[in-house]
């Protein structure tokens, strides 16, 4: 896996959103491999920094901190943005 | 992929609170009865959702404290500014209903025989001990003899969860405590946050091909994981689960 | 239909309704809510800039701290439903900062270290309603709360008070910022409970 910087104290990791991802993708996703669309870093979802500031969930690249995924829940609808990923699988 | 035999349920299921056990002043274990519970793997967690009578809902993830085959149980630490944990640790009683989603997780899981490598190093920061205790229980249930060292960092002796169980560990399991804020009189154990020196003394040497599971507040996990890698553990053999900032 | 969890309730407001907008509860804590890692820009490299006027204008930390400052005590309201009353801040008013720029734009996009953005009408930054705040609670603003400086616009939901702010982009048209892009209200008035787009 690619080199990484230390996680911010307030971040959790992809384990914390395992349930959300399972509900969205229909399968276990914490072992899925994410490739950053900005820097190409490759990491299992479980090891990605995840920020949960209450307004939504922001998943970032461990190496370059680019936003990989954003999830928000507005009026019972989950908005999913995966545009920061080059691939997920 | 090998080992994903137990599929989590994608939707919320109603659970009934069973017996509850106070582990410490702030920590409680709750048995949960879920009809058709599919079973779980050691290290997995569940999402819990509460609904108020005005329809307001809140959900949080909690590690499963029981081993596969044992009744489903979660261990919850009350966070002072929390919304769900004060309810679960102080209000919820046997017979109450909540919702469960899971079991969840395919990364931070352990099964006997899943890894033909060496001994297990389990590193727990505070309530990070919960999934690691499930791993130790699963090891016993399965009759595994893989050697285990559990390094458990806690603020004080009073904050140690499962102390009576950990004081009588099974054969082949060694528990090493470090009490970071206060220690009982005549304490001879570690009395500081985990650092490289402590890991050098406690962790299996990298040459034994250990597999590590590190769980707890994010800064604890970052520090321990980096320390193990510095000792020569391949990053792929250090599994991590971070709980965020809890002001330990 | 989810079963009701007996005895569970949302946190409630315990202050008079004229102090607390609808749907909020009062907290004594100051939750740290971040969409990314705490940046650590050294003050020697920090600048605050306003772009999009006739000429870009920018201040170094020393230049910024030489500007007139104000202290204020105000309530803040987060869209995640907590309100914190009587918070004390020190900062430079946006009236001072925008007063040094020649512009006619009606909107800004505030931008921060780490890439966070949020949009505001210029009118909501003027008239003693907004600051770039470097002090909180009588001391320097802590990094986890947005230090060395954050935007402070207390009459709107607190996601508009961008942490780690580094400048404003003046614009003729409104463009949604980070959370606004994901369904949060483009304006965000807590007194009209404008949490989400369409509220």
Q: Please report the number of helical segments of chain B.
A: 5
Task: Name the chain pair whose interface involves the most residues.
Answer: A-B, 26 and 32 residues
Number of strands of chain B: 11
Tell me the quaternary state.
heterotrimer
End-to-end span of chain B in angstroms?
Answer: 37 Å
Weakly predicted, low-confidence segments of chain B: 1-5
Mean pLDDT of chain A, to the nearest integer, reads 93
Summarize the helix and strand pattern of chain A as letters. EHEEEEEEE
Q: Supply the number of structural domains of chain A.
A: 1
Strand order of the largest sheet of chain A: 1-4-5-6-7
Anisotropy-based shape of chain A? globular
Class by SSE composition of chain B: alpha/beta
Radius of gyration of chain B: 18 Å
Number of strands of chain A: 8
> What summary fits the major beta sheet of chain B?
6 strands, antiparallel
> What would the average pLDDT of chain B be, to the nearest integer?
94
Give the C-level CATH assignment of the largest domain in chain B: Alpha Beta
Q: Any idea what the radius of gyration of chain A is?
A: 12 Å
CATH fold call of the largest domain in chain B: Rossmann fold
List keywords for this structure.
heterotrimer, A: 89 residues, mainly beta, five-stranded antiparallel β-sheet, three-stranded antiparallel β-sheet, 8 strands, globular, B: 248 residues, alpha/beta, Elongation Factor Tu (Ef-tu), domain 3, Rossmann fold, 2 domains, six-stranded antiparallel β-sheet, five-stranded parallel β-sheet, 5 helices, 11 strands, disordered N terminus
């Amino acid at each position: 896996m690619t080199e990484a910087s230390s996680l911010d104290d307030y971040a959790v990791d992809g384990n914390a959103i395992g349930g959300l991802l399972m509900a969205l993708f229909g399968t276990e996703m914490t072992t899925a491999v994410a490739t950053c669309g900005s820097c190409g870093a490759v990491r299992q979802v479980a090891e990605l920094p995840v920020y949960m500031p209450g307004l939504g969930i922001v998943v970032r690249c461990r190496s370059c901190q680019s936003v990989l995924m954003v999830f928000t829940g507005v009026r019972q609808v989950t908005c999913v943005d995966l545009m920061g990923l080059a691939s997920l699988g | 992929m090998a080992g994903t035999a137990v599929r989590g349920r994608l939707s919320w299921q109603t659970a009934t609170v069973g017996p509850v056990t106070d582990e410490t002043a702030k920590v409680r274990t709750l048995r949960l009865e879920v009809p058709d519970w599919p079973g779980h793997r050691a290290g997995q967690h569940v999402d819990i959702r509460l609904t108020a009578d005005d329809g307001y809902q809140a959900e949080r993830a909690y590690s499963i404290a029981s081993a596969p085959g044992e009744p489903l149980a979660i261990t919850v630490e009350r966070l002072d500014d929390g919304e769900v944990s004060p309810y679960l640790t102080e209000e919820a009683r046997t017979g109450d209903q909540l919702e469960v989603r899971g079991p969840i997780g395919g990364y931070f899981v352990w099964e006997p025989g899943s890894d033909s490598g060496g001994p297990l190093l389990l590193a727990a920061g505070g309530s990070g001990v919960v999934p690691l205790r499930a791993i130790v229980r699963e090891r016993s249930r399965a009759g595994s003899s893989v050697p285990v060292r559990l390094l458990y960092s806690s603020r004080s002796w009073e904050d140690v969860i499962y102390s009576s169980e950990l004081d009588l560990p099974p054969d082949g399991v060694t528990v090493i405590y470090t009490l970071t804020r206060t220690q009982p009189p005549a304490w001879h154990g570690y009395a500081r946050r985990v650092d490289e020196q402590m890991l050098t003394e406690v962790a299996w040497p990298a040459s034994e091909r250990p597999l590590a599971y590190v769980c707890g507040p994010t800064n604890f996990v970052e520090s321990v994981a980096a320390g193990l890698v510095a000792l020569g553990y391949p990053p792929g053999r250090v599994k991590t689960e971070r709980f965020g900032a809890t002001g330990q | 239909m989810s079963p009701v969890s007996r005895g569970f309730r949302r946190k409630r407001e315990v202050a008079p309704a004229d102090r607390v907008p609808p749907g909020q509860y009062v907290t004594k804590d100051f939750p740290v809510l971040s969409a990314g890692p705490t940046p650590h820009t050294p003050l020697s490299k920090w600048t605050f800039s306003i772009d999009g006027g006739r000429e870009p204008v920018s201040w170094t930390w020393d230049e910024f701290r030489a500007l007139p400052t104000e202290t204020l005590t105000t309530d803040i309201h987060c869209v995640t439903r907590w309100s914190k009353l009587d918070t004390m801040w020190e900062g430079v008013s946006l009236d001072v900062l925008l007063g040094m720029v020649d512009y006619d734009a009606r909107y800004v996009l505030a931008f921060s270290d780490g890439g966070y953005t949020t949009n505001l009408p210029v009118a909501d930054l003027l008239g003693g309603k907004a600051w770039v705040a470097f002090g909180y609670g009588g001391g320097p603003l802590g990094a986890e709360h947005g230090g060395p400086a954050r935007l402070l616009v207390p009459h709107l939901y607190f996601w508009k008070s961008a942490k780690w702010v580094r400048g404003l982009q003046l614009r003729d048209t409104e463009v949604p910022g980070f959370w606004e892009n994901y369904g949060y209200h483009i304006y965000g008035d807590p007194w009209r409970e404008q949490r989400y787009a369409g509220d």
